[in-house]
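Re: the 439-residue chain
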Amino acid sequence: MDCNAIFANRQREELAIVGAVLFAPHALPSAIAALGDVPLADPHCSATLTAIGELRDAGQDVNGASVAHAVVVATGWPRHVVVQFLASVAEAAGTASTIPRHAQAIREAAAALELRDLGKELRDITPREISSAAHYIERLRTINKKAEGDVAQNTLATDWRRSLTNRTAPKRYRLAVEGNQLNRVEIFPGGLTVLGAPPGAGKTALANQLLLHALAADETLRAVIANVEMTPHALLDRQLARLSGVPYHKVREREWRASDERDIFDAADEIEALLPRLTIMASPFTIERVRATADAHEANIVVVDYLQRFELARPLPDIRQHVSAVMSACRAIAMEGRAVVVISAIGRTSYGQGGGDLGAFRESSEIEYGADAAYLLVANHEDEGAAEREITLKCVKNRHGSRTPIPLTFHGAHQRFTAPDEPEDSPSPYPEFEGGWAG
């Protein structure tokens, strides 16, 4: 531990925080709060901060001359020494917005120096004093716990403030070409999105289409698909049909026409380029194994297909308890910063005409509270059996935005969904937020 460097850095940070308060006296309370119980090590910095506080409390002007006079009166230091010090403060001054960062650095330096002093005491301990080791261990734990809490709290504050200053919106993954309405679907880091529909409606096709587009759009993304019903080859064949334009049944039977050969292998090249960043999980299908696979693969997006079929390491007899436990595990995966897309079965009775609402999901209460966003694929019953079916992606819950439905066309032969582009003449600059807010 280079204590000289740590002390020098702490001194620079103390000058910066005192300078910030000198030029913005209104920031004094926030500086004191940010420092907490850590005192300023430099006596000149401490005396200057105290003088600023006294002038501020007395309603007097805070400027270089008034602060210098107050410090000289309070300490008896020569005026030229104080003036020279204030010049160095002005040169190193931070700003009101940087105070949390300077305070964090000061606290970290204080913790490091405290550890140094504790290390010296431990080094000099004698065998007779070994009974007091517990005291030192407890001190070490206290220092470590405080340091960890300070770093976490100030990292949160710094990151949040930076997002406001830079107007950085929360990240959402690109799920379709720019300007397409499919980009309204809420799939984002830390989010849990649920997609439901009857069997054969295209839940798996839509989820995997959105996932592969996200992977293609961002070369840093990694993903896991955990599908209990289809083999990895079948999942890839579906994507091959979508990208090549060759019907799925021809792809599955390897019976495409010679004229389709180029389209098939161009699409295969696209998919193969994504495979190093995509893991398709094999059995056993436990939710605990999904989490372990996501960890091992360092996945950003996890698709769980489908909710009710996943097992627990310790099975529960009641289906509601089971689904609740699986949803809780999915939420835990999301809270690690991953986007989790969960495909769910629905109850046909509650689904009914128009697709229903959150109650259409089986074991709906667990899904209702656990999901950030929930969608239902609602088919036009008049199109049943048609090669192209008009389907509405109905948003029944959105914790962070609108519930605007998205019109889709499902091209069943090619396992592909298409959606219209955002309207150019929309009266709102934010068309994705038309249609009402989630409650």
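Residues 133-165 form the longest helix (33 residues).
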